[in-house]
Amino acid sequence: MNFENNLAFAQSLDQADPLSSFRHDFLFPQQNGKPFIYLCGNSLGLQPKAVRKVVDEQLNNWHNLAVEGWFEGDNPWMFYHKELKKLMAPLVGASAKEVCPMNTLTVNLHLLMVSFYKPVKGRFKIIMEAGAFPSDQYAVESQVRFHGYDPKEAIIEVAPRVGEYTLRTEDILTQINEHGDEVALVLFGGVNYFTGQWFDMEAITKAGHAKGAIVGFDLAHAAGNVPLKLHDWDIDFACWCSYKYQNSGPGGISGIFVHEKHFTDTTLNRFAGWWGYQEAQRFKMEKGFLPEASADGWQVSCTQVMPMTLYFASLQIFEKAGFIEPLRVKSKTLTSYLFYIIDQVNMVLGFEQFEIITPLSENDRGAQVSIIAKQNGKEIFEKLTANNVLGDWREPNVIRLSPVPLYNSFEDVFRTGELLLQIAKGII
Ligand SMILES: *Cc1c(COP(=O)(O)O)cnc(C)c1O
């Protein structure tokens, strides 16, 4: 598409956008009586207006039914998670049996590693991306130590080449091939939180499996952002948080994926709890853990109805939008327009004040554009915020901007560029 750097052009794209009305389903934060241009959905998605009603319904159920609410009412709590599973599955390319809402992300990463990181002498290593989200680094290090290995020896990090910011798929595959027989687990992010790079998940999975390793993904920045085919790509396990691109609220419930091929594997370790027990027999309260043969078998504690209501309200918006494919079409154009606008800002300034480190190819990125501000980065970021554009800042010098297809517009992107130019010129 031939983009133009003017308001009328941006507005014409919005008029032609079949998803433009979805922004009215969300509540925007305000400053000085004006709504923010919100470009921070990669960190915390906006509140869907529908949330209040859904939460209220469950508060009423709690009030009116109390303990009977587990089996009575329109959506008995006992089976409420199944309504979510139906809507989570198409978002990540899985069957409903393969996904389950539970806990929070890092907790689930630990629970899944208990099952899927099975180090033995000679095959105990984990391959992951260098600079993974810190929580993932801490989780992996502590798992390695828990099994009696030294993280320095056991964790292999794939890093960008000197002078580059993102990983080359060939370098990831080479590391997997080279360490091959020693690798117990390949654990990657789907989309990197810092650069916004979307990794070639299918190629990574194939390479890991060819060497006999288990392959899992942390999809915190990928789920609800890019189209996923977890089942068809034959990924062993995955987990994600729902409060970023899936708008389920701060600390919202996490989702897990376990490929169906693992459901009946009795050799897998689990940290078990009563809610993972076979649903039909759970209340016999018998000795000896028998897991439900689905992702539900990884549940530990009783189902978290209140955080699930938030996630449910948001998933219904995705359903109304046609799940991920229509969003992805808009998302690609939105980020491409942001690339173009940043380029225009540099051109007018006459030097590269803003360097984008997110992959240029739209197939290698999601909805996030990470920008290095060459000079006065922190100051520029603070002025953006003061002037009602909310992105986020990552040390040492990166501004992350995420135009989210459900609630951002092309006008948002244009206005952000206009503001960046004024700030960089010192007008603001
Ligand atoms: C956001 C994020 C987390 C956060 O995990 P919580 O357990 O929900 O706090 C973990 N890992 C990655 C990759 C993330 O992007």
UniProtKB/TrEMBL annotation:
Pathway(s) where this gene product acts: Amino-acid degradation; L-kynurenine degradation; L-alanine and anthranilate from L-kynurenine: step 1/1; Cofactor biosynthesis; NAD(+) biosynthesis; quinolinate from L-kynurenine: step 2/3
Enzyme nomenclature, EC number: 3.7.1.3
Keyword Hydrolase in annotation: yes
Gene Ontology molecular-function annotations: kynureninase activity
Cofactor: pyridoxal 5'-phosphate
Modified residues annotated as N6-(pyridoxal phosphate)lysine in this record: 244
Listed InterPro entries: Aminotrans_V_dom, Kynureninase, PyrdxlP-dep_Trfase, PyrdxlP-dep_Trfase_major, PyrdxlP-dep_Trfase_small
Reactions catalysed: 3-hydroxy-L-kynurenine + H2O = 3-hydroxyanthranilate + L-alanine + H(+); L-kynurenine + H2O = anthranilate + L-alanine + H(+)
Keywords: Hydrolase, Pyridine nucleotide biosynthesis, Pyridoxal phosphate
Pfam families, per the entry: Aminotran_5, KYNU_C
Binding site for pyridoxal 5'-phosphate: 105-106, 133-136, 218, 221, 243, 274
Aminotransferase class V domain location: 37-262
Similarity field: Belongs to the kynureninase family.
Protein purpose: Catalyzes the cleavage of L-kynurenine (L-Kyn) and L-3-hydroxykynurenine (L-3OHKyn) into anthranilic acid (AA) and 3-hydroxyanthranilic acid (3-OHAA), respectively.
UniProt subunit comment: Homodimer.
Protein name per the record: Kynureninase
Lineage: Bacteria, Pseudomonadati, Bacteroidota, Sphingobacteriia, Sphingobacteriales
Gene name linked to the record: kynU
